Structure formats: C-alpha cells, structure tokens
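Think of the structure tokens as a kind of shorthand, similar to the way a musician reads notation: each symbol stands for something richer, in this case the local conformation of the backbone. In the example below we present two proteins back to back. Begin with the first one, reading the sequence and then the tokens, and try to describe in your own words what changes along the chain.
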Amino acid sequence: MKPLIIPLVALASGFAGLQWNTESVPPVPHPRHEAAFAAADGRFYLMGGRRIQPTDCFDPSTGLWKSIAKPPLEIHHFQPLVRGHEIWVIGALTGKFPNETPVPEIHIYDTRTDAWRKGPVIPEDRRRGGAGVVEHEGKIYLVCGIQRGHMGGFVPWLDCFDPATGTWQKLADAPHARDHFQSVIVDGKIYNAGGRRTSHETKELMSLTVPEVDVYDMASGAWSTLKEPIPTPRAGTSSIAIGNSVVVAGGESATQPLAHNEVESLDTRTGAWSALPPLQRGRHGSGLIFHDGKLFTASGSGRRGGQPELDSMESIKLPDSFIK
C-alpha cells in the first residue's frame, strides 16, 4: 500500500529569498559519505565514512580546513554524539558493502588531544549500525538501526546507556523499525523521522522507506506516531533540532537516481511540516551543524549509493523567527 503523503505547507516563515551557499575555500575536505559531521569546541569535524581516512577539521573563524587524526578502524553509518570536547561514535558499522558488521564497542575522539580511544563495549545481542543516537540528562539513547549491514536485520530497539555506571537498559521498542536515519531530541522527546528498512537480501535495498514519524516521550516512557508523515520519504538523511523544529535534509531513495536536495522542517508544537530552501547539491550520508545562526552540511554522496563522494560544504543563514 502506497503511504499517504501530506502536502507541505508554504515555505517556512522568513525563508523567502534565502538559499544555500556553497563554501569553496581551499583546501577542501576529503570526499566521503556515510560519515559524521559534528561541531565541538567551536570547530566542525568530518569523520569516518567508507575506508579509513583522516578526520577533517574546519575552523569557522578562519574558513580553513585541515586534516587530523585517523580513526583506529573503518567506521561508517553512525550518528555522532558530542559530549563536551569529545565526539562519541556509538552504533557504527565497519567493513564493505553489503556485509558490513556492527562495531562492538564505543569509540571516542578527543578534540583537544587529537586522539582516539576505545570506550565501553556494546552488549553483543544489541549491536547494530545506521541508528539514531541522542543524549538526555546524561544518558545516551541508541535508537533502531540494522544488525547485518545492508543485508537486513533492521530493528525497532531503544537502548539506554548510562556512562556514569557503565550499564545498559532495554527500553520499549519503537512502533517502526528503521535504519539510515538520525534521531533528535526536542523538549524531552526523541523524534525519528526518515530512514528505511534496508533489505539487500530481498532486493529491497532502498524501496522500504519509512514515512511515519515516531516520538518517544522520556517522561512517560511511551512511543507514539504523529498524524502527519514526513512529506518526502527517504533515507540517509541528516537531522537536527533547532528550537521547536526538527530539520531533515538530503537523503536517497528508490524514486530517483540523484540524492535528494529537499530540506523539510517539522514544527513539534503543531505537527505540521514546512519546506525550507533546497540544498544546492543533493547529498546523503552526512550531517547538519547549527553554528552562529547558520545551518551547515558537508560531504555525502551526490547520487543514491556511494558515488560520487562530495567534498563541498553548504550553509544557509536562518531567520530569527525560525530559530525561536
């Protein structure tokens, strides 16, 4: 049954006449996709992706990139978690398509020492990649994901890790299993928007996109599904919470060969979706950073699948009305 797609409301308030701009000051970062893009200590970090490559660091005060430490192993398909001056990699995949395997432990990058270290082990029966990762009140939540690379094994699981005690807790399953997406937190609630159920073994690699938006309420410990689905179902998306909004950018799907350039915003107060200006270049397998009133994205793949890998960064100035 084809999912019901709710038409977008008009362009989000304050965005008329605005557009994304490509940042092209050399040197450019290493081309990569299925990677992480995160901000810590006032700098941007591009890390991971297919193969083992140096981490690329961007200083917004100078507009320059530089290459720094490589991760200790190939890590891809993960949502980075910034904790102070550290970036935690939880729920990553490693290895080659389509038989990637979950990384068995947490890996931590220290931005001040430019060094990686191995963190706690993830319970063997709950390991997966392509999952959402968020933090709330000092505890880390690993959301959904996939166990057997691109072959299959997508799960609806929600796990909570307490770094203070080193303990893991299984919580209620989400209404919809999904992978290749990113979770965000707004007002004590986890939002899952975008993603798919990847199943290369049944020849449904990209066709099983998940239009439903699931929400986990930390206070009640219960899941719900919003009335309105994401307007453009796609996976490999980048997501971020800004004020009361959940912004979902880019992605890939079976509906088109090019990566998606759509940027869509969910108002968590009303449940309504709005369109934001589209990316200059469609891309999937990257992330979003909000810094100094601007939204940034970088790297990713320009077509569904792995090629071409991009080395560009784009940004858009957000209106004050949207940020509030």
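Once you have a description of the first chain, move to the second and do the same.
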Amino acid sequence: MGEYKPPFSITNKILSYVSSISEKIGRITTTSNLESKPHLRKNNRIRSIHSSLKIEANSLTLGQVRDVINGKSVLGEQKEIQEVKNAYAAYERLSEIDPYNIQHLKQFHGIMTKFLVEESGEFRSGEEGVFNGDQCIFMAPPAQFVPQLMSELFDWMREAQNNVHPLILSSVFHYEFVFIHPFSDGNGRMARLWQTAILSNWKSIFEYIPVESQIEKFQAEYYEAISQCHITGESTIFIEFMLSQIDKILDDISAQISEKNDYLPETVQKLLAIMEYDIPYTSNALMEKLGLKAREGFRRNYLHPAVEMNLIQMTIPDKPNSRNQRYVRK
C-alpha cells in the first residue's frame, strides 16, 4: 500500500479562518470556564445531537430529544428515539475516543447504530450511493476497497497530525470519510462525531461546542460543498465551508458565556447557573434548585432582576401572576 495524501490546497481564506478560530478559542478559554457551567454544556450537547440527527431526517424536536436524553417518555417513531439514545451514548464518551484509531471508529459506529443497522460496527459489504429521488448523484467506492481506503486515510491522519493543523485535518477527514462512505448507514453522523473528536483532542472545549447545529442551519450549503469537492476531486472547498461554520458558532458560544456576568448581581448569576436554556421552570422549581424557602425574597432578589435585565422571559408575559406561569432562560 502506497502512501496516500488526500488532495487539498491551503488557501488564504483557510489560513484566515484558522487564525480567527484559534484567537476566539483562546479568548473563550481564558475568559470563561465551561466546566463550571454544566447546564450550558448539557444544552450544547443536546443541540449537537438534535442537529446531527435532524440533518439525517430525524423528525424529533429539540424538546423531544431533550426528553429522551432525560429518560422521559416521548411519542415518536421507535427508530428515531433509538437514534437519540445511541447518539447520546456516543457523545457522552467523546473524551474516550482516540480519533486516530480505526478500531475506535468501528466501536463508536457500533454505539451510534446499535439496534438499527445489521452491519453495526463493521464496514459495509454492499454498494452505496447518494440519491436525489430516483437519481443517483454520487456512487461511493466499491465495498471491496473500503478497508484499504480507510486504512490509508487513518495512516495519513496519524502522519499528518504533526504538521497539519487540527482544524484543517479534521475537515479533510470529514470530507474523505463522506466520500468513502465506509458504513452501510450512519456515515453523516459518524463524520460529524469524528470531526468533533479530532477537534476535542486538540482543544477539549470543542466537546461542548455544537458545530453540528451550525451545519444544520446551512445544510444545503453543506451538501453543496461536498458535491463541489466530488467534482473538483479535492476537499479545499469543504475545508473552507467547515472552518467558516466553526468560526460562526464560536461567536454564539462567546455570547452564551459572556453575558457580562461580572456586572450581574450574585443572586442573578446563581439563578442563571441552575437554568438550562429553552426549559420552562415554575418559580417553585427554581426555588427548590436554589435551596430557597422565602418566596418574596426569591422574587425580589433573583427572579425580578433577571426578568428586568431580559435574561429570563415569562411564558405568559401579559399575566405575570398566572398560576401557569413559567420562566425560560434566553
């Protein structure tokens, strides 16, 4: 087997994104500590899972995905519910992944497709293509070549990790993986999981950055970039696309974690710290989480200031004293 090098070019746009992303990661790391924000971490992980599955036509809402993960009963297709359980099991073990180990790839495909795919954890034995209706728009390499192609890709990654920036390497892997299409199902989910694993291996903060949610917002452009690379025979366009999305999601993360907490009253900071995004809470539930018993003190010192600062919104704003009132972190 010869030494294989995936074809791509380093453009000025790529270098600019690498510089911008590295600067933003450094700023986020020095100004905040995601380890001290468990609700934010969990919320971002749920967003990653929901978006990655939605790209593959899973119809469960973000709230339903959260309920499945929290062990609640959800009305939906059993297959889609199982996809959520599997994805959560895989993402929860992200820190265990050696992204340069091909056996780990197979192991985590087994986790991601448990109970769903006959060839779970194994490379495909049949031929695969990408279809638009009845039209085949891309035919993956023959199954007999998959083990060799994947072995060559991982050999290149292990060699390149010392001289190719992880942001570029992870994007090259993502495209090459999609091109090889090594599994009978779950290739998109695994490509996104593995890029996150490579990035997390570089900077652990990526474990809680929902890059998948940014891809889902620009899903048409995502597939168009892949298609253009199929035509040109190299992954440069896809690298530029992925780095642009990573650059954008870091702006969202900065906004999430900044919130000028240094200028907020300590009581408001404590309230925000125990609230997950997009979850409606009763005032009783919030008091219980904070360990408070005095309702008036809670409203005066915690709830009302947070609402006035537009950090929390009421679900029934025109009836602030409604017994059905809930509070949601924005």
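Compare your description with these statements about the second chain. The chain has a mean pLDDT of 92.
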